[in-house]
Amino acid sequence: MTTPPKTMRWNGGPDGWLTMIDQTLLPTEFKEINCKTVEEVWEAIKMLRVRGAPAIGCAAAYGVIIGMQQKIDASSIRDEFDRRLKEVTEYLATSRPTAVNLFWALDRMQDVSLENPSLSPQEMHQRLLEEAMAIEEEDRAMCAAIGQHGAKLIEKGTSILTHCNAGGLATAGDGTALAVMFAAAAQGKEIQVYADETRPLLQGARLTTWELQQRDIPVTLICDSMAGQVMKEKRIQAVITGADRIAANGDACNKIGTYSVALLAKAHNIPFYVAAPSSTFDLSLATGDEIPIEERQPEEITNGMGKQTAPESTRVYNPAFDVTPAELISAIITEHGIIQPVTTEQVRSQIEKT
After folding, report:
1. What does the alpha-carbon distance between residue 32 and residue 313 come to, in Å, rounded to a whole number?
2. HSE (CB half, 13 Å, CA atoms) of 53?
3. pLDDT given at position 354
4. If you classify domain 152-351 with CATH, what class do you get?
5. Which of 118, 201, 300, 319 is least surrounded, with the fewest CB atoms within 10 Å of its CB?
6. Mean pLDDT across the stretch 43-64?
7. DSSP per-residue codes, 65-113
8. Bond before 341 cis per omega within 30 degrees
9. What residues act catalytically?
10. Which stretch of DSSP H or E encloses residue 275?
């Protein structure tokens, strides 16, 4: 079993830069990009060069470091530094609206500044870099813990369906949903995976299959519309997906199409699991109805992968996410353990104590 390259890495000290895999080019081309301006980080998040809620949070934290570099010189004063920090975090927050890890990471960077008012701009810049690195390292540890907890739910020989990509490419570590599969495989459970292609941007086809092949885990690619038939043929014993935001009652927002998969799993009596770190929970939202859903450009559907597949002027609705109600979720797997049943009380019991 080989280990794929890291999704991102920081180069140097506070005056360094962020290197990331350009995920828009996978699987046919592996290319890393260097982000040396905050605008480049914003563009990478917006255009899905980096994607997946935890990875977006890590990238945004490092984006803060880059955005603050222009405010660090011998004449810098703390008030100017703090004003610039507010500008940078607010700017990065506009890149994507749904993944709560983005806002969680940016709030955490702001909190570090508020907690250290006596530090000079130079000292504060170094302290912010330490916080960004801590966010990345914590995410790596959370992925490992999610994998170990989730593997307890997987029996030997299980065939698992997953939707979109919730692997190492979406995090700083082994992923969320895929971390469970990696851990189960490492335990000798001889799993196999079915991956939905995940239209319209094909993250399942382009990214999930690539990651599973890197780890030598058997994977079969199917169209999104085939999931029901594959379940009916009893080829699937479990479904595991990630999440971009989870409300206080356990409603989970994930890539568009996840809700349909959850309904199919319920109809076929197949357990549907969500794997996500505690940073993905937004307890300020009572239910998933309050989660903002990003709507993306129509060209992603009419001109997918650069080829026109619909007549000119066709009207398009392109929500990037949907929300799976808690009652369809068998369990939520976090770094702290398994939330089951998925209720407001169980969610708060685990997440509020962290």
Report:
1. 35
2. 31
3. 61
4. alpha beta
5. 118
6. 96
7. HHHHGGG-STT--HHHHHHHHHHHHHHHTTS-SS-HHHHHHHHHHHHHH
8. yes
9. 244
10. strand 272-275
Contacts of 299-302 with CB under 8 Å at 24 or more apart are 300/200, 300/201, 301/200
Position 306 confidence tier, pLDDT thresholds 50, 70, 90? confident
Query: pLDDT (tens digit, 9 = 90+) per residue, 75-103?
Result: 678 889 999 999 999 999 999 988 789 99
Q: Exposed, middle or buried by CB within 10 Å (0-12, 13-18, 19+), for 185?
A: buried
Topology alike, domains 8-143 and 152-351: no
Give the pLDDT confidence of 280-299 residue by residue, as tens digits: 999 999 999 999 999 999 99
Distance CA 6, CA 153 (A): 27
Helix, strand, coil percentages in the chain from 3-state DSSP, rounded to 5? 45, 15, 40
Return the C-alpha torsion angle 68, 293, 53, 180, nearest 10.
Answer: 180
Closest CA to 163 of 338, 322, 1: 322
Give the residue extent of every domain in the chain.
8-143, 152-351
Fold of 8-143: Four Helix Bundle (Hemerythrin (Met), subunit A) (1.20.120)
Q: What distance in Å separates the CA atoms of residue 75 and residue 72, rounded to the nearest whole number?
A: 8
Position 5: which residue type?
P
pLDDT tens, position by position, 222-256: 999 999 999 999 999 999 999 999 999 999 999 99
What pLDDT was estimated at residue 302?
97
* pTM confidence score: 0.91
Q: Which residue positions form the known binding site? A: 51-53, 96, 203, 254-255
The order of strands in the sheet holding 281-282 is 281-282, 245-247, 252-255, 321-324
What tens digit of pLDDT does each residue of 126-181 get? 999 999 999 999 999 999 999 999 999 999 999 999 999 999 999 999 999 999 99
Binding-site residues for substrate, in ranges, read 51-53, 96, 203, 254-255
